[in-house]
Amino acid sequence: MAGSVGGPRVLLRRLREAMAEPESAQKRLDKIVVLIAANMVAEVCSVYLMRPTQELELFATEGLKPSAVHKTRLRVGEGLVGDIAAHARPLNLADAQSHPGFAYRPETGEEVYKSLMGVPILRSGRVVGVLVVQNRTKRNYTEEEVEALQTVAMVLAEVVAAGDLINLQELDEPTLTRRRPYHVQGASFSEGIALGHAVLHEPRVHVTKLIAEDVDLELNRLEQAVYELRGSIDDMLATEDLSHAGEHREVLQAYRMFANDRGWLQRMIEAVRTGLTAEAAVERVQNDTRARLQRAADPYLRERLHDFDDLANRLLRQLTGVKLSSASGNLPNDAIVIARNMGPAELLDYDKERLRGLVLEEGAQNAHVTIVARALGIATVGRAETIIDHIDQGDAIIVDGDMGDVYVRPSQDIIDSYSEKARFRARKQAQYQAIRHEPAITLDGQKIDLFLNAGLQVDLRHLHESGAEGIGLFRTELQFMVASKLPSLKDQIELYSAVLDAAGDKPTVFRTLDIGGDKMLPYMDMAAFKEENPALGWRAIRIGLDRPALLRHQLRALLTAAAGRSLRIMFPMVAEVAEFKRARGFVDKELARLAKFGKQGPAHIEIGTMLEVPSLVWQLDTLLPLVDFVSVGSNDLLQFLFATDRGNPRVANRYDLLSPAVLSFLRFIVLKCRAHGVPVTLCGEMSGKPLEAMALVGVGFRRISMSPAAIGPVKMMARSVKVQDLEAFMEGLYGLPDPTVRDRLHQFAEDHAVAV
Ligand code: PEP
Ligand code: MG
Question: Whole-prediction pTM value?
Answer without folding.
Answer: 0.66
